[in-house]
Amino acid sequence: MGLGLGDPPADYGSIMAVGLFVALMCICIIVGHLLEENRWMNESTTALLLGLGAGTVILFASSGKNSRLMVFSEDLFFIYLLPPIIFNAGFQVKKKQFFRNFMTITLFAVVGTLISFSIISHGAMGLVSRLNIGALELGDYIALGAIFSATDSVCTLQVLSQDETPFLYSLVFGEGVVNDATSVVLFNAIQNFDLGNFSSLKFLQFIGKFPLSIWPQYLSWEVSSGLLSAYVIKKLYFGRHSTDREVALVMLMAYLSYMLAELLDLSGILTVFFCGIVMSHYTWHNVTESSRVTTKHAFATLSFISETFLFLYVGMDALDIEKWKIVSETYSPMKSIALSSIILALVLVARAAFVFPLSYLSNLTKKTPGEKISVRQQVIIWWAGLMRGAVSIALAYNKFAKSGHTQLPSNAIMITSTIIIVLFSTIVFGLLTKPLIRLLIPARHLTREVSALSEPSSPKSFLEQLTVNGPETDVENSVSIRRPTSLRMLLASPTRSVHHYWRKFDNAFMRPMFGGRGFVPFVPGSPTESSLPLLAHGSEN
């Protein structure tokens, strides 16, 4: 039966919970603004601490019966909170810097994740099993490797600056996004792994085949979903009638790419990230000038709200009295501390085990000292990737809980240990990352890195870019790319050489079909015509 106009709301509890959560988000934004210049704090740590404080207040107000406004839900995290964060990161990423380091990022994110997964899994089987915490099976130990191999790419957005340290940002954040996707896919693959006939040989075969089995199908779907949106918007050009429809279609097609990827058992994280990159390269330039401003700020705002919500959410859920009560009644405090310490030590060792060796291998392929990863940068990459976040918590809930609840002591202590590691790594490692960067990379080096490598932090007006850049320059960051004149030059600088041929292919085939800077639709009376009458086709040809 429907409610009348004078009837009260159906659920005061839900309305109160949502209202309090929105108020906390407003407070978090205000506090984050006041601490903007603080060298230690960042918005993620602020939201996490505020969530812990709010959870403590609720815990005392409810006489120790409840500490949170909402139950942690992995569906809420993966379906609603994570997509806008990852998409905006791809949409705003400095593409030239990202793809210049793409091989190193892939090396860290795929090979490095598999190394980390193997070390943590074997370490858990050898060390955690000695604590006698309960009936943990082989699949649980292996799942721990996938759970704690997932870095916190969301927190990386807060502690690293894309403008001050573009090289480190592209490496650490790029690795984090692909790492999260690899960890989630690896976790799901483990659930279907035949543990009845488990052997070290089969495990190594599984590890070896894993990258080859996921990357081709993922990359094809990621690129095609972004190109489809560009083609539809370019051909139909909704902006001539309604910019609202245009903006809505861009946002919905971005979200649709994520949901379809999940339905097809592909990585939604990777899909929405690369969809953001493709849409910023093609789709964004096919809409009207007002729609570009709107979409840019809309994606950034949705991402910011989701990040704030997420860290508040994790902070409040950390004090869930149900799990902590089960653990305190079954285990001693020392056993909980020992379990968390062992897992944290494995995370530290596992990350060091691949960052430094893989950095050495990556440096072997670099010809100039400026392209190589220095020892100081390797330390920062190792440190910044130690943070664990909501992905780890979501996977732990998926493995050790049902609908956010568990009654098994062994499962409860695994969830509380995950929460402890997430809180410790986010607060401690997150607070110390900025000072560590200032210590290892002096300000004069940051200034030089910005001037040499930085690009626009977000897509700019194609009109501005075309008036600044000539036809032979790299329009992404105004750096001229020399044409490779010999096979030796192609082998000596493959990144720049590949970029030269990609630009020619892009201008000749991709942009005329899918749009982009210089190939926007020409419609009489449109903002394009009034802004730049002479722009009928690309000036980059």
Automatic annotation (TrEMBL):
<feature type="transmembrane region" description="Helical">
    <location>
        <begin position="379"/>
        <end position="400"/>
    </location>
</feature>
<dbReference type="GO" id="GO:0005886">
    <property type="term" value="C:plasma membrane"/>
</dbReference>
<protein>
    <submittedName>
        <fullName>Na+/H+ antiporter</fullName>
    </submittedName>
</protein>
<keyword id="KW-0812">Transmembrane</keyword>
<keyword id="KW-0630">Potassium</keyword>
<feature type="transmembrane region" description="Helical">
    <location>
        <begin position="336"/>
        <end position="358"/>
    </location>
</feature>
<dbReference type="InterPro" id="IPR018422">
    <property type="entry name" value="Cation/H_exchanger_CPA1"/>
</dbReference>
<feature type="transmembrane region" description="Helical">
    <location>
        <begin position="297"/>
        <end position="316"/>
    </location>
</feature>
<feature type="transmembrane region" description="Helical">
    <location>
        <begin position="105"/>
        <end position="129"/>
    </location>
</feature>
<keyword id="KW-0739">Sodium transport</keyword>
<dbReference type="GO" id="GO:0015385">
    <property type="term" value="F:sodium:proton antiporter activity"/>
</dbReference>
<dbReference type="GO" id="GO:0051453">
    <property type="term" value="P:regulation of intracellular pH"/>
</dbReference>
<dbReference type="GO" id="GO:0098719">
    <property type="term" value="P:sodium ion import across plasma membrane"/>
</dbReference>
<keyword id="KW-0472">Membrane</keyword>
<feature type="transmembrane region" description="Helical">
    <location>
        <begin position="47"/>
        <end position="64"/>
    </location>
</feature>
<keyword id="KW-0813">Transport</keyword>
<dbReference type="Pfam" id="PF00999">
    <property type="entry name" value="Na_H_Exchanger"/>
</dbReference>
<feature type="transmembrane region" description="Helical">
    <location>
        <begin position="76"/>
        <end position="93"/>
    </location>
</feature>
<feature type="domain" description="Cation/H+ exchanger transmembrane">
    <location>
        <begin position="25"/>
        <end position="437"/>
    </location>
</feature>
<keyword id="KW-0915">Sodium</keyword>
<feature type="transmembrane region" description="Helical">
    <location>
        <begin position="412"/>
        <end position="432"/>
    </location>
</feature>
<dbReference type="InterPro" id="IPR004709">
    <property type="entry name" value="NaH_exchanger"/>
</dbReference>
<feature type="transmembrane region" description="Helical">
    <location>
        <begin position="267"/>
        <end position="285"/>
    </location>
</feature>
<keyword id="KW-0406">Ion transport</keyword>
<keyword id="KW-1133">Transmembrane helix</keyword>
<dbReference type="InterPro" id="IPR006153">
    <property type="entry name" value="Cation/H_exchanger_TM"/>
</dbReference>
<keyword id="KW-0633">Potassium transport</keyword>
<feature type="transmembrane region" description="Helical">
    <location>
        <begin position="12"/>
        <end position="35"/>
    </location>
</feature>
<dbReference type="GO" id="GO:0015386">
    <property type="term" value="F:potassium:proton antiporter activity"/>
</dbReference>
